[in-house]
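hey m, so remember when u said the tokens were messed up on ur end? i reran from scratch. heres the input so u can diff it against urs
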Amino acid sequence: MTHSETSLRRLIDLPGVRELEYRSVLKREFAEPEARAEFPEINACVTALFGLTADMAEEVERPTDWDTPDTKSPIVQVAAFEAEGWDVTDDKRRPLRVLGHFSAPLWLALRGVAGSLPFDTESPAPDAWAAKLAAEANRFRKR
């Protein structure tokens, strides 16, 4: 199954991420942690999406059972994020160059430690989900 066939949320499709990724293609240093000081738009984007900057995320106290997913290699993180329902690759299935800016805030938000996940307009509302389930149950009973 390809990523387009799954229901993974794509980090690159969130507001501002594709633009940051493009800039990191043009200027490799843009993906480095030091770039956050020089380019405030990185922290602005991360904060807008997850409620905290990458630097703030580094300072958050982790639970005692934290398995440090945010320090793993990008390839390992791609698989781990996919297991959590997130695609952190580009359109050619390579890990995003800017993943380092988003990794810790996303992990912290996913696990409910700090920050928050961006609103997902693609997820059906609970009422729509319940209505669909009820309709399927009725169809099943009619068989």
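this time it looks ok to me. The first helix runs from residue 17 to 26. if urs says something different then somethings off w ur setup not the seq
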